[in-house]
Amino acid sequence: MASHPTTSLPWPDARRAVHAAGAAAMRAPVTVPLVEAEGLTLAEPLTARAPMPAFPTSSVDGWAVRGAGPWRITGQVLAGSPAPALTTDGTCVEIATGAMVPTGASVIVRVEDSTVSGDEVTGEARAPHEWRDIGEEAAGGEELMPAGTRINPAVLGLAASAGHDVLRVHKAPKVATLVFGDELLVEGVAGDGRVRDALGPQVPAWLRRLGAEALPPVVPVPDTLDAHVDALKKALDGGADLICTTGGTMHGPVDHLHPALKELGAEYVVNTVEVRPGFPMLVAALPGGRFVCGLPGNPQSAVVALVTLVMPLLAGLVGAPVPPLGTVTLGAEVPGRGGHTHLALVRRDPADGLAYPLPHANSAMLRGLARAIGFAVVAPDTTGTPGASVPLVALP
């Protein structure tokens, strides 16, 4: 059962822990047509069903010739047609780009390098042959993309070229967003002690960029234990594989997430992370292989929790590896945060390509986040110095 936590995890360990939990709860893959696969994740390696190309393919328009010239024209080969063999020296066929190269062809003479007189062609080839050989791109059965690859339009094109009509995939996890807080307004301008909800519009948009199927957010969920439990149960009944909550991750008078998790029989995977900002974040496993990710209520802290915990958890659920970190070179000092990892918002200067810390980066602010390329990772007990290369958590 969920219990009051006493130990927080280092930031790298937390990422690995939630990824492993997601991988252990991975759903069985499904088979979908290519037209339905974009944005999903390969459940098995994409391989070539036949050599690519399957036959020698002309790279240019011109003449496929045999032997020494001049060459007598004996026919024409267009893309999509079989190519009769050239069996006699001194003969040629007109050939189009993408057409099958006839057996017996010595070289291809480009049309712009040739002269036609009656039924004869003269000219000189630029290269030994100007065609793609069988298997030049891939041998039959060769792995083209590993399992865990997010399917983008280029992968779809590659799959089609490799002869696939369907793909085995992991479907996008369904993710619900519950925004806790009696103080929240869903429209208009903040005032009289109430603030505008900035996470209901934002979190589902980040989730979609991470490949999830984001369900409509529930905003606001009242600050009572009964309301929290009811909202969580409704999200589960709605088919959510993961529920992202915002706020309530501490133990204040209106923080009801921990008691709600206990009532639902949850087990903590991660509860608090040694990172600043955003340390009071959590992931709890529910019976049946579903999860709750508790994001802090401060907007930037919530995004720190999202890239720290939700990103690797979703990757694990679809069989993808732990999301790799990028690298940036700092153009100015980025302070450390003592014994905690510091995720510092940075922008990239187009003039020098270096990463600089942003103003308006308080955990309750979003102005810096809106200009950022991501978070520079400053390790515990260090400072990011100008010229240093440091990891980068890119924003999705």
TrEMBL record:
GO terms for molecular function: metal ion binding; molybdopterin molybdotransferase activity. Pfam families: MoCF_biosynth (PF00994), MoeA_C (PF03454), MoeA_N (PF03453). One of its GO terms (biological process) is Mo-molybdopterin cofactor biosynthetic process. Its cofactor is Mg(2+). Its EC number is 2.10.1.1. Pathway: Cofactor biosynthesis; molybdopterin biosynthesis. It comes from the Bacteria. It catalyses: adenylyl-molybdopterin + molybdate = Mo-molybdopterin + AMP + H(+). GO terms for cellular component: cytosol. Residues 176-316 form the MoaB/Mog domain. This is Molybdopterin molybdenumtransferase. It comes from Virgisporangium aurantiacum.
